[in-house]
Amino acid sequence: MSENKEHKKRDIFTEGPIDPSFIAQSIAKHATRHDIGAHGIFLGQVRADIRTRDGSINHAVTGIEYTAYRDMANEQMSIIRDEAFARWPITCLHVHHSQGVIKAGELCFFVFASSAHRQAAREAVAYVTDEVKQRLPIFGKEIMEDGEQVWKSAVLMGRGGGGGRGGGGGRRRRPDTMRSLREFP
Questions:
Q1: What gap in Å lies between CA 43 and CA 1, rounded to an integer?
Q2: Which of 57, 65, 68, 167 sits in a 20 to 30 Å window from 5, CA-based?
Q3: Does 65 score more than 70 pLDDT?
Q4: Which whole number is the average pLDDT over 148-154?
Q5: What's the CA gap between 141 and 113, in Å, rounded?
Q6: What's the sign of the alpha-carbon dihedral 14, 20, 25, 26?
């Protein structure tokens, strides 16, 4: 759909939370592009979920510590980016994901696509958001209000179970419990 041009590889990771002013600046930078008629945006924010532990004790999540296989994730993101440009007539695509400790209420994931028309921007953002959650080796460790840390458990690399969307989140198990990464394409 979009021009078949080589997109430079980018590091999508940001240390700490994504600053809302960065998002505003990202949008403002596109004001000079007169071929853009729509922007699609997805923002991921850390929730203060309540977890039941030890039978009936409830603990609130105060943050998530994100880690990733950075090189592998950036390589896979480059593939997802190329797929999005091939499927929709988008003019640009930006993806940022936090690393480190992100507190409840802070932003941890930002997907931004621009196009001449809104449908392409919306669909590209939805696709990229879902693919990042399914395919990138990004791991989250929930930090509880009592200081305990618990790896988020979910569908491993988008395989098996409930598909990774809704209900259980899409993050993978901690690195030391994963099957060999060579098993995945």
A1: 25
A2: 68
A3: yes
A4: 79
A5: 28
A6: positive
